[in-house]
Amino acid sequence: MRRPATAGRRWPVPLLVVLLLGQMAVATVTGAARQTPTIDEPVYVGTAAVHLKEHSLRYNPEHPPLGKLVIGIGVAVADPRLEAGFDGDQGELGRRLLYGAGNDPWRVMLWARLPVITLTLLFGLVVFAFARDLAGTAGALAALALYCFSPDVIAHGSLATLDVPAAGFVLTSVWLLWRARRRPRLHLPLAGAALGAALATRMSTLPVLPVLLVTAGVSVWCATTGGRRRRLARSVVGAGAVAVIAVAVVWAAYLAVDPRLRWTPQQHVPVVHGLRGLLVELLPFPEPYRDGMRIQFGFENHPWEGFLFGRRYTGSLWYYLPAALLVKTPLGMLVLWAAGAVAVVAVRRLRPAASYVLAAPAVLLAAAMHGSRDFGTRYAVFLPMFLAVAAGCVLVVRRRWLPVATAVLVAFVAVSSLRTYPFYLPYSNEAFGGPAKTRLRLHDSNVDWGQDLGRLADRLRERYRGERVWLVYKGSGVPSFYGIDAADPRRVPPGEVRGVLAVSDSAAAKATGRLAELIDGSRPVEDVGHSITIYRR
Question: What is the DSSP string of 357-396?
Answer without folding.
Answer: HHHHHHHHHHHHHHSS----GGGGTTHHHHHHHHHHGGGG
